[in-house]
Design a protein that fits this description.
Number of domains: 2
Shape: elongated
Distance between the termini: 21 Å
Structural class: alpha/beta
Radius of gyration: 22 Å
CATH class of the largest domain: Alpha Beta
Largest sheet: 9 strands, mixed
Order of helices and strands: EHHHHHEHEHEHEHEHEHEEH
CATH architecture of the largest domain: 3-Layer(aba) Sandwich
CATH superfamily of the largest domain: P-loop containing nucleotide triphosphate hydrolases
Strand content: 5-15%
Number of helices: 12
Number of strands: 9
Helix content: 40-55%
Strand order of the largest sheet: 1-4-3-5-2-6-7-8-9
Length: 370
């Protein structure tokens, strides 16, 4: 189950081995003249919203966070099932009236590969399934289907991990991804999730190459009543550094740093990402505490290549899978779990704020087999 941790009152700061206490005045600008001049201030009146999250359990320190309504939960699950319907159909129809023989296993192998599960995860699931069928003496196709569902759940469960809030002040999140993965939109949705859990948020428009990216992030900032730090041009690492310094001076809970989209094969741009991460660390020891990769769920096995490349460069702490609607196959999570098991914090199935929800392995597997 997921649990989020709310920041404790300032008079009782959270102190953990991962956090190095730093005097509030140390190297932090405190006057308006010292603060970055490219800060877009939020509107005077907060934006109201009815969006809630699908968090099933909330830690006692954030018990006041709104709980998901039953109808919203049902709506989310039905949309998730609809998004994964194609893969679900390919997997489940194999077992209708089937005999347990080599032909069934061959068809199952093809179905898993077609769903983007990848060769390694597919062979692992098939080999383990065959052993399970033999050891438990399974004779019915429905029993084999249930066994496969159990194995897939066991494979995906390690990816389910909560994004913990309140352990760092501020929590600095660096967010990367290729062009078109939905990175900037996802940042806007995440900002709303943070606010639902009583966290103040600051956004850094680190994509200094595209004016449209800065404008899009500014729109999300206005919509969520969140401050956005940006520059028309210049070094994205400097924007990130200014954002961290400003957040520390203001007592902001979460800093989210957008970065320019890039392909993992663009080595000079990957080096720039490494530079941004190093500069953020200079602005705050231990930061960024979270390095997230946004992945388009429709990119298939290319998504796995992205995970490997960005993880090698940045040491990723979490993933967010977007666009798991309609044409997405979903099996890529199995490939990730088997080859590079990085936590999947959130999955997205649409454009609305409520369409981004914490990853729950049981819900995901149920959607694939029901």
């Amino acid at each position: 189950m997921f649990s989020f941790f709310k920041r404790k009152p300032k008079e009782e700061p959270v102190v953990t081995p991962e956090v190095v206490a730093t005097p509030a005045s140390a190297a932090i600008p405190t006057t308006p003249a010292e603060l970055p001049q490219t800060i877009a201030e939020p509107a005077a009146q907060p934006v109201t919203t009815t969006a809630t999250t699908a968090v099933d359990e909330v830690a006692s320190t954030s018990a006041s966070a709104p709980a998901p309504q039953p109808e919203q939960k049902r709506s989310w699950l039905s949309r998730l099932k609809a998004g994964l319907a194609k893969t679900s159909s390919n997997l489940t129809t194999l077992f209708i009236g089937a005999r347990i023989d080599d032909e069934l296993y061959d068809e199952l192998e093809a179905a898993l590969l077609t769903s983007d599960a990848g060769v390694e995860a597919t062979l692992f699931l098939l080999d383990t399934l065959k052993k399970k069928v033999k050891e438990e003496k399974l004779t019915e196709a429905e029993q084999v289907k249930t066994a496969l569902k159990t194995l897939l759940l066991e494979l995906l469960t390690p990816l389910q991990k909560p994004l913990e809030l309140g352990r760092h002040q501020p929590l600095v999140m660096m967010i990367a991804g290729v062009n078109g993965a939905g990175k900037t939109t996802t940042i806007g949705k995440l900002a709303k999730h943070m606010q639902v859990h009583h966290q103040s948020v600051l956004l850094a428009a680190g994509d200094t190459f595209r004016a449209a990216a800065r404008e899009q992030l500014s729109v999300w900032g206005e919509r969520n009543d969140v401050t956005v730090i940006s520059q028309e041009s210049g070094d994205p690492a400097a924007v990130a550094f200014d954002a961290v310094a400003s957040a520390r001076a203001r007592g902001t809970d979460v800093v989210m740093v957008d970065t320019a989209g890039r392909l993992p094969t663009q080595l000079h741009l990957m080096e720039e990402l490494k530079k941004i991460k190093r500069v953020i660390a200079k602005g705050m020891e231990g930061a960024p505490q979270e390095v997230l990769l946004i992945i388009d769920g429709n990119t298939g096995q290319n998504a796995l290549a992205q995970v490997r490349a960005f993880d090698d460069a940045l040491q990723l702490t979490g993933l967010i899978i977007t666009k798991l609607d309609g044409t997405a196959k979903g099996g890529v999570l199995a490939a990730i779990a088997k080859t590079r098991p990085i936590p999947v914090y959130f999955i997205g199935i649409g454009e609305q704020i409520e369409d981004l929800q914490p990853f729950n392995a049981q819900e995901f597997v149920d959607a694939l087999f029901n």
